[in-house]
Structures are given as structure tokens and as C-alpha cells.
Design brief:
- This protein is α+β, with helices and mostly antiparallel strands.
- It has one domain.
- It is built from 2 helices and 6 strands.
- Strands 1-2-3-4-5-6 form a 6-stranded antiparallel sheet, covered by helices on one side.
- β2 and β3 form a beta hairpin.
- It is globular, with a radius of gyration of 14 Å.
- The model has no long low-confidence stretch (mean pLDDT about 80).
């Protein structure tokens, strides 16, 4: 099994500004959205609710496959406000 090089992860998460009022200033890099540049948190956000959320600092990956249409930010907020606190509670047991 091969792995993804650290250099490619750096390149695909290298922020590129998105010029649109709909993206809260979020940055984009090769099919990955840079959610929190200072923490190097990024996510692949697909159509209708599919998300792969990666937080390398905490060594956490969250994948959601569902119909969750409101906005891109609702999906990220759902992961950060609902799923991650549950993961932290489970890992601190």
C-alpha cells in the first residue's frame, strides 16, 4: 500500500483565495478547503453533504456521507460543534 507524500499534502492544502462572499473567506487548495489555516485543518466537501474533515494536530479524520444540503459551513459546523466533542469525550475515557 502506498501513502500520500507529505509534500503533496502541503501542496493540496496550500491556500488559494476564493473570491466569493459565500465562502466566509475560506481558502481552497486542489479540491480541499482549508478550514483553519493556522491549525492546518482541511476538508474535502462534496455535493449534498459528503465531507472528509482532517485535523492532523489532533490525529482525527471525520467522514460524513449523507444528504445534508444547507451550506458548506453547516457541514463544517456540524462536525466541529457536534461530532468532535463526542470524539473527545470518547477518547478521554
Amino acid at each position: 500500500m502506498s501513502s500520500i507524500s507529505e509534500g503533496w499534502i502541503d501542496e493540496m492544502t496550500n491556500p488559494r483565495e476564493v473570491e466569493s462572499k459565500y465562502f466566509r473567506g475560506m481558502q481552497y487548495g486542489y479540491l480541499w478547503w482549508v478550514i483553519h489555516p493556522e491549525k492546518r485543518i482541511y476538508a474535502a466537501i462534496g455535493n449534498s453533504g459528503n465531507v472528509i474533515y482532517v485535523n492532523p494536530e489532533k490525529d482525527i479524520v471525520v467522514a460524513v456521507s449523507s444528504f445534508f444540503k444547507p451550506t458548506v459551513f453547516d457541514r463544517v459546523d456540524f462536525i466541529e460543534d457536534t461530532i468532535l466533542p463526542c470524539v473527545v469525550l470518547m477518547t478521554n475515557r
